[in-house]
Amino acid sequence: MYSTRKVTQDTIWVGASDRRLAQFENIYPIPAGVSYNSYVILDEKTVLLDTVDRAVAGRFIENLTHALDGRDLDYLVVNHMEPDHCATLEEIVLRYPNVTIVGNVKTFNMIRQFFTFDVDSRAMVVKEGDTLCTGRHTLSFTMTPMVHWPEVMMTYDSCDRILFCADAFGTFGALNGNIFADELDFEQDWLDEARRYLINIVGKYGPSVLQALKKASALDIQVLAPLHGPVWRENIPWFIGKYQTWASYAPEDHAVLILYASIYGNTESAADALAVRLAEAGEKKIAMYDVSVTDPSYLVAEAFRCDRVVFACPTYNAGIFPKMETLLHELAAHNFQKRKVAVMENGTWAISSGKLIREILQSLKDMEIYEQTVTVKSSLKEAQLGELDGIVAFLEG
Ligand SMILES: Cc1cc2nc3c(=O)[nH]c(=O)nc-3n(C[C@H](O)[C@H](O)[C@H](O)COP(=O)(O)O)c2cc1C
Ligand SMILES: [Fe+2]
Ligand SMILES: [Fe+2]
User: How confident is the model at residue 371 (pLDDT cuts 50, 70, 90)?
Assistant: First the structure.
């Protein structure tokens, strides 16, 4: 059975959601699933914008067939060649052999790498600013490399003023009937997942996202139609503002994030002691995570949200406790920067985790690192509470 929704008079959402997949890209947990969005424009010519992941091919084909209502498919615009949007590309060519595939030079190189069907006889190669008129609608193409892959482009329909924005403005989470952000409490229920999606997937390429935002700012956008998650018809400047913050590595909240590792519980106890002292100093927003419990994708997103971060960690085989080390490398890999940070270390015989953590933090841009590492020798002692207050004063100063 089909499950399409109208986006505008001529444009129909024909995507589908996967609620079975445990990890997106086989790395990021998605407890609420994910949607793969695809759109049809019914004009004098028919256009399909992107396809979907193999996992939801069945429902996608039912939706597409229903939307076309017996018409042939004239164009398939490929904004992004990653298999979560292209695994069903050959299926489309087999069903609609007259289709013209629209992409840029890099798109077609990738199609030839992933597939063996005859793409060249049906290729329409476009470059920045090129247009395609389908009757009432004129589509124009703008290149947005590295948001998420090098071939990524966005397609703007100047008739309905829709920006088909590929992976940008996407969100983890299945779409459950309400495909529009204005039908949901997005800030309450979806914002954390939108942040986790963007930061983890393209956090490393903030400048590329900023460039794409600059191009988008020249357009009159009434609808933002991403490849994952809700479609935007209202409040678009608010969401673009969030992207501006995330892509420029600016903190989103005035909040303290305490990230700790602990084997026996003593580092955790010291972290708790710090947290209550922060609270007593008036800090209202404190987030705290055990890095062995929470997946790094959540922690990287939280670190991007908060303006101050404390790392507390035992020494492990003369190194950093592995889960913390992985997290620090993830932060560095995502170009984490511009934060106030403090370090607490622990150990029983030769303590080195603090020094090693500082080395990683010092390699990041524009970090303000509290000069005093608090050293816990197996367990924190009453006489050391003043040292915690030193961290509090630094973070609250
Ligand atoms: C496998 C393993 C390796 C460790 N390696 C070191 C080490 O190289 N140097 C050190 O001082 N302590 C080492 N420790 C001890 C812990 O860092 C120490 O007991 C610390 O107080 C644990 O803090 P926690 O109570 O928060 O788990 C190691 C512990 C384990 C289990
Ligand atoms: Fe992608
Ligand atoms: Fe994607």
Answer: very high
C-alpha to C-alpha distance for 104 and 80, rounded to whole angstroms: 10
- The string of pLDDT tens digits covering residues 38-61 is 999 999 999 999 999 999 999 999
Is beta strand 123-125 parallel, antiparallel or unpaired with respect to 374-377? unpaired
For residue 278, pLDDT over 90 is answered with yes
Is residue 308 within 8 A of residue 256, CB to CB? The reply is yes
Residue 375: closest CA among 278, 287, 266, 280: 266
Percent of the chain scored above 90 by pLDDT? 99
* Through-space distance between the first and last CA atoms of the chain, rounded to whole angstroms: 59
Query: What structural domains does the chain harbor?
Result: 5-247 (3.60.15.10), 254-396 (3.40.50.360)
Average confidence (pLDDT) over 297-304 = 98
124 close to 80: Cβ distance less than 8 angstroms: no
Q: How far is CA 170 from CA 77, 83, 146, 195, in A?
A: 18, 16, 15, 9
Q: Report every protein residue that has its C-beta within 5 angstroms of ion ligand 2.
A: 82, 148, 167
Q: Do 228 and 175 contact (CB within 8 A), yes or no? A: no
Query: Which atom belonging to ligand 1 lies closest to the Cα atom of 266?
Result: 25
Distance from Cα 202 to the centre of ligand 2, integer Å: 9
CA 157 to ligand 3 centroid distance, Å: 20
Residue-wise pLDDT tens digits, 129-167:
999 999 999 999 999 999 999 999 999 999 999 999 999
